[in-house]
Amino acid sequence: MSRVLGIDVGGTGIKGCIVDTVKGVFADERMKISTPQPSTPDAMLKAVKKIIKSFDWEGKPIGVGFPAVIKGGKTHTASNIDKTWLDYPIVNKWSTALQTEIKFVNDADAAGLAEMKFGKGKDAKGLVIMLTLGTGIGSSLFMNGELVPNTEFGHIIYNRKIAEKTLSNVARETRKITWKTYGKELNGYLQYLEFILNPDQIIIGGGISKKFDLYSKYFALKTPITCAESMNDAGIIGAALATKLHF
Ligand code: BGC
After folding, report:
1. How far apart are CA 59 and CA 98, in angstroms?
2. For residue 75, which phi and psi values (nearest 5 degrees)?
3. Fold entry, domain 124-228
4. pLDDT for position 230
5. How far is it, in rounded angstroms, from Cα 62 to Cα 144?
6. 201-205 and 127-133: which strand pairing?
7. Which of 3, 18, 22, 114 is the most buried (most CB within 10 A)?
8. What is the pLDDT of residues 45-88, one digit of tens each?
């Protein structure tokens, strides 16, 4: 079966669509609802149920991209979601509640999976870093196309602050800084990542990838850097793709 429901849970919105995992495209109309506040496990489950119901997808396998480290069936971080997610046994709780097979993946890893298969990372060799700049900064890392899951480069301390607190797209809006200031600061952070990881390619995803030209002109990097091709859809497509992978 090449059609799977992919759901991208974010700090601001929850989006879902049935995805053709062979072609990497939507097979229906995308649905989006706001992330409940507070974003507790029960409230999030209710929102996800609504999406599943709207696609008539009850009982069928789904892929969920989630904004936390997912390891051993649990969510291990909770930077932009309710703190009750720390060490929450999401796999067990949600598969039981939804009575279906669910593959959970970090949201940035999901976006990276889609971009590596269908976008700018297609056939890429060596080390590729994809960053999603949205409510936070998500990261995914690939070596010769293989995902190294659960990296958190948005949590690196840069300029004495957690990088995502000053450099995510939401932080840029809150700080009301110009594209020039943002571009230069982001450049410094990227140079730091470049220094410690020596990647072969960097891809910028998330909503802000649409504005790539406005801030990338201030970059002075050794590594080739591009904006993601699949922009905002990558998280949903990648969540669906993750159901076909073992990691
Ligand atoms: C979370 C990451 C997530 C990123 C983007 C960060 O705060 O720790 O797991 O990928 O936000 O949503």
Report:
1. 7
2. -90, 130
3. Nucleotidyltransferase; domain 5 (3.30.420)
4. 73
5. 27
6. parallel
7. 114
8. 999 999 999 999 999 999 999 999 999 999 999 998 999 999 99
Strand 31-34 and strand 157-158: pairing?
Answer: unpaired
Paired tokens of 35: 């992330």
Q: What pTM was computed for the model?
A: 0.96
Ligand 1 neighbour 75 (Cβ under 6 A): no
Burial profile 179-197: b = 16 or more Cβ within 10 angstroms, e = fewer: beebbebbbebbebbbeee
Cβ 154 under 6 angstroms from ligand 1? yes
User: What's the gap in Å between 11 CA and the centre of ligand 1?
Assistant: 9
**CA-to-CA distance for 71 and 146, rounded, in angstroms?**
17
First-residue to last-residue Cα distance in the chain: 20
What dotted CATH number matches 3-109+234-242? 3.30.420.40
Domains 3-109+234-242 and 124-228 share a fold: yes
**Under 8 Å between Cβ of 138 and 106:** yes
Domain positions in the chain are: 3-109+234-242, 124-228
- Going by C-alpha positions, the residue among 40, 6, 31, 214 that lies closest to residue 111 is 6
Sequence length of the chain is 247
Please work out whether the CB of residue 140 comes within 6 Å of at least one atom of ligand 1.
no
Confidence band (pLDDT; 50, 70, 90) for 229? confident
pLDDT in tens, 115-157: 999 999 999 999 999 999 998 999 999 999 999 999 999 999 9
Evaluate if residue 1 carries a pLDDT over 60: no
79 Cβ below 6 A of ligand 1: yes
